[in-house]
Every structure is written in C-alpha cells, then in structure tokens.
Amino acid sequence: MHSNKTLNVILLSVIAALFFIPFLGRVHLFDWDEINFAECSREMLKLGDYTRVYVDFKPFWEKPPMFFWMQSLAMQCFGVNEFAARFPNAICGIVTLVVIYLCGSRVYDRKFGLLWALAYGGSLFPNMYFKSGIIDPWFNLFIFLSLYYFILYTWKRNGVDKEGLKKTAVTYAIWSGIYMGLAILTKGQVALMIFLMVLGVYFIYNRFRFYFGWGHALLFLVVASLVTATWYGYETAKNGTWFIAEFMKYQYRLFTTHDAGQEGFWGYHYVVLLIGCFPASLFALPSFFRSQYSSRFDKDFKVWMLILFWVVTLLFTIVQSRIIHYSSMAWFPLTFLAAYTFYKWERKELNYKKYVGVLTTILGSIIAIVLLAVPLIGLNIKRLIPYVKDTFAQANMAAEVTWNGSEGLVGIIMVLTLIVGIRMLRKRNYAGAAWTYFGGTALVIFLAAAIIVPKVERYSQGAAIDFFEARQGEDCYVKVLGYWSYAPFFYTHKEKPTNENSYNEEWLLTGNIDKPVYFVTKVDRVNDYAQYTSLKELYRKNGFVFLKREPVQH
C-alpha cells in the first residue's frame, strides 16, 4: 500500500514537471510584477546583499526576501534569464500538486487526493501561475500548509475520529507555525491576517467553543516569529528599524488605498475566480451546498475549506486594490470543492446536477471561441487597425508576427475537451469526466504557453525589450519616458549607478550628462517631449519611439 502511494507521488511529480518546466523561458518576462521581482533577485546577486531587497539599486520594501532568495538561487544555477526567474514557481507547481494529493489522501483517500491534484493542475490560472515569475504560488502554498497542520492539530487535540494522526498535537502546532513563518517571509503579514480570520470565523461556527489550547496558540506564534526573525530580526539588528518600518507602512497602505489603475467593481474577484479557475469553479458549485457526510472529519474539513474561500474572497473585496492574484488563495478551497463534487458523485453521496454540465459547456465554449479567434485575429490583424482608435494600440498591431493558423489547434482541443467531457457526464462516468475536463484544460494551457503567448507578447512589449537587450554591455543610461517599466533595469543588465544624477529625469533630458542616454517612450506620448531639442529620434517600432541624447563634447 505504501509503495503504491510513493509511486503515485513519483508519477504526479513527473507529469507536473512535464507540464510546468518546458517553455518557461520561451517568452520575455511581463511588466510589472514578473520583471520587478526578477530584477530584485538580479540585484541581490549583483550586490551580494541577501538581507535587503533592492530595485533600481534603491531599497524596495514592498516584499520580504523569501521568493527573491529562491529566484537568485535559480539565477546562480541557470543564469539571469526568464527560465531562472520562473523556475521556482515550476518547482512550486510540482510541490503543490504532491502536497494536495497527500493532504487529500490523508483526509479522505488516494482517489480524492488525485482528484484534488487534478482539479488544481487542470484549472486555468492555478496552472498558468506555475509558469510565471510572481510570488503568489509559494505564498499560497505556505498559508495552506499552515492551515492544514492547524486543522490536524485541532483534530488531534479534540479527538476527532481520524486514524493516522500519529504525531502529537504539539508537533502539528509547531509545523503550522513554521509554515506561517515562511508565508510571512514570502509576502508579509497578510498571511497571518487570513489565517486568524479563518480561525475567528470557525470559532463563531463552533458556537464560541475553544477548539485550541492557549499554550498551543502561543507556541504557534513563537515558532512563526522565530522563523520570520531570520530576516526581520537580522535586518533590524544589522541596519536598524527604518527598512522594516517602511515595509510595515507599505503593507498597511496596500490594504487602505488602491494604486492607480487597480480599482474595480465589488464583484471583481468572483468573476476572476469563475473564469480564471475554470473548470474547477463550476464543478465546485454543488459542494457549496449541504451534502451527505461520511464522517465527522469529512464535514469538518469541508467547513474549513468553505470558510477559507469566503474569508479570502470577502477580505479582498473589502481591500481597495483589485488585482487578479489577491484572490488566488481561494484556488485551494475552490479546487477542493470541485474534487469534492466529483468524489461525492462517484460515491452516490451527492446527486448529479445538470446545470453544472450546462454552465461548464457555456463558459468553456466562450473560452474555446476566444482561443479560436486569436489566430484568426492574428492572420487579419492589419485589416483591423483602422477600426482601433488608440494610436499606441494601432502601432502595436503593426508588429511583424507570423501566424499560420495552426495556433487554432489550442482552441480545437478545448472544444474536444468539452464534447468528450459532457458525454462522460451524461454516462455518469464521473472519474472519466474529471480526467477529461482537467486533463484537457491542462493540455490547452501547455500548448497556449508554447504557441500563442510568445506571439501575443511580440505585439505588447517585444520591440521595447529587444531595444533594452541591445543595450547590454553598453556604457549608457536607459530611461523610459511618460510611462513606468522595470524592463530597462532587467533587460539592459543595469549596473549600479556611480552618478546619482542618473536618477533625475530632468538631468538626463537637459543636464550635463557624462555618457549617452537612450529614451523609450510611446507614440501617443512622444509629443510631450518635443521641446527637448537635444533628443534625436533613432526609430519607431510597434508603438514605441526610441530616442538618444549624446553628451556635449568639450
């Protein structure tokens, strides 16, 4: 039996690696987050300072260093490139699917564990994020593990009917604290906030009965604090409180104000989860309602997952900034509920609801139409330019990108997935339906990342990135005008400035510069800089205008 479980873990790891690792470096990093984080890691290596986070060689207090440690380690192994920047999350993808399988197997059985891993790995955004260079996949995993070990702790302490809990309640509390400390080191105190809110709601659900010991709660906090002290404590002891104080202020500001362009309507995260977590989001629907429970722990674990879902989605609905990955923690409970639906259908403990198949077909068809339309638009994009009003977008669309129509294969696979999936559901072959929907979606994402995304990226930022890469090794300054981008730092392999004036835009435009300055702006903003007569236009490409200013020869 044990070897069977080990074999499943090995197979799952290999399949996850095959889905997440290939093509990681096929497309440039995207502004802002991906390039921002990769640049922080590059500067860590450049400066040899692993205790502080920098961007553009200035202190960057928005994030703790855990993820940057992972990225800089990958960069030491694979070089400063896109593959290295995204590699930690590919590893996170493998670890996450194995963790979910093992958790599902422990709480229910191996079939459930596989269903849950399948639902997570075969839903749109959860899968796509493992091919990205952003912080959230590791952050979410650490929070989930902290909560999971806390649930095991409560079962052990309160004598819930669960076999296999061989360790002591204290051990589970310590592991919960360790993972919480790692989560805080990855993205900050919001991890503890989510955790405590979930515990608070469970306390109310539990009719205000204490399900934990205060000594154990204190132990949890002490362990979490000791883990975070490896950075917070060290940084404060070495450099004083300034950096940590700025970091705390930023965390508070993030919750109380929205950044420019990041506000949205109140139901934003529910729409993002519905589409982004397809098809798990729709298969999860029946499990939001009451079902037949096989045991006390079956009901209890589902309650914890439901609370986690509502806490995350309501908390980030209240938060002013509307950013897609804020609600990504909800992918764990949402994919759990999708697996739960299939599991209960299989065991005849939940009646099949036709609306699930209908809604999945409708939303799946919309996604398939979009995927089929992309190559069609690509082949005819020049004809569409006159109908677009935005001059920057018009110029983007003029990029030379080769489409041959074979990209439509991605959409065709989505259509086949929907046809075979709905047939499986009609035959009540629920296991087959789960493998079809989630396996098919995973294949669609894999092919889209390899075939479609690199071509789309050429329209959005390709010309600018090419220009920055061409400046590598050249003794010059590179600056964007009229918009913000982290790309000039990462893609020029910027060295630490020796002249503080180089941070001053006005000095670069009009001052007595000591080396050439390259400027990159957009076609709809270039006229704002027409008064700077010393700027010489080099060329224009795909919406970007490239300018140069030479130092005055004395």
UniProtKB/TrEMBL annotation:
Write down the membrane topology. Multi-pass membrane protein
**Is Oxidoreductase given among the entry's keywords?**
no
Which of UniProt's keywords are assigned here?
Cell membrane, Glycosyltransferase, Membrane, Transferase, Transmembrane, Transmembrane helix
Name the principal localization, coarsely classed.
membrane
Lineage of producing organism: Bacteria, Pseudomonadati, Bacteroidota, Chitinophagia, Chitinophagales
Query: Which compartments does it reside in?
Result: Cell membrane
Q: What EC number(s) are associated with this protein in UniProt?
A: 2.4.-.-
The protein's name: Glycosyltransferase family 39 protein
Q: Which InterPro entries match?
A: LipidA_mod_glycosyltrf_83, RgtA/B/C-like
Q: Does the keyword Heme apply?
A: no
Q: Which residues cross the membrane?
A: 7-25, 91-108, 114-130, 137-155, 175-205, 217-234, 268-289, 301-318, 324-343, 355-381, 401-422, 434-453
Q: Name one GO molecular function term.
A: glycosyltransferase activity
Source domain of life: Bacteria
